[in-house]
Amino acid sequence: MNAARDDFLPPHTLHQLRTFLRINRSTLSPQEVLVTAVEEWIARQRTSESTRGYQWKEVFLPEGTSVRMTYDGEAYYARVVGDELLFRDRAVSPREMTIAIAKDGRNAWRDLWLLLPGERQWINAARLRMQQNQRLAKLPVSQADALSSAAKAMSQALNAAVTLIEHVDYQTTTVLDRRMPRTRRKYDMLEDIS
After folding, report:
1. Which residues form the domain of 39?
2. How many angstroms separate the CA atoms of 141 and 147, rounded?
């Protein structure tokens, strides 16, 4: 890319980007970062048809998700409409849905089953949360996070090395003090046999 063609970016934002790249010693140019960011944004827009849905702790239920709970041999259904979970034409939380059905303390993660838009099989809410957490754990960390972790590890290693050196220094000093002639008995002294 032509370096002169970054004038469409506000100067303050361009300055922040260049500073960030310099501090993190990135080999990418601002133009390469912009191209990557735009490509990722386009890919994200293509994969998410709707940004509306219900946020249930760390699990996002997109609009159109069906929610089912079976209790006492009967199935009860709710649906995500807009940003709400509707059960019996009333906006509820998953916990409120389980209480309305079973009248006692139930674990909504365990008792609710979800049918996500475009899917054909129901999945237990707890299982979906576990799968999502596993996927998130596998995501690569950013360069800044990696550098921060490396710096922390180096700091801990240096502190351990300093502690070890101080310990060895103390041990050698005390051993030498004990072997000094003024604190030893005459008959404990080894004679120099030459």
Report:
1. 3-47
2. 10
**143 and 24 in contact (C-beta within 8 Å)?**
yes
Burial grade of 188 (CB within 10 A; 0-12, 13-18, 19 or more): exposed
CA-to-CA distance for 63 and 52, rounded, in angstroms? 6
Residues 39 and 89 in one domain: no
| Inside any domain, residue 73 | yes
**Is residue 98 a part of any domain in this protein?**
yes
Kindly write down the DSSP assignment for every residue of 9-33, as one continuous string.
Answer: S-HHHHHHHHHHHHHTT----HHHH
Q: CB-hemisphere CA count at 13 Å for 49? A: 7
Q: What is the pLDDT of residues 88-121, one digit of tens each?
A: 999 999 999 999 999 887 899 999 999 998 888 9
Distance CA(25)–CA(144), nearest Å, equals: 10
Q: Is residue 92 part of a domain?
A: yes
3-state secondary structure at position 2: coil
Q: Is the pLDDT of residue 138 over 50?
A: yes
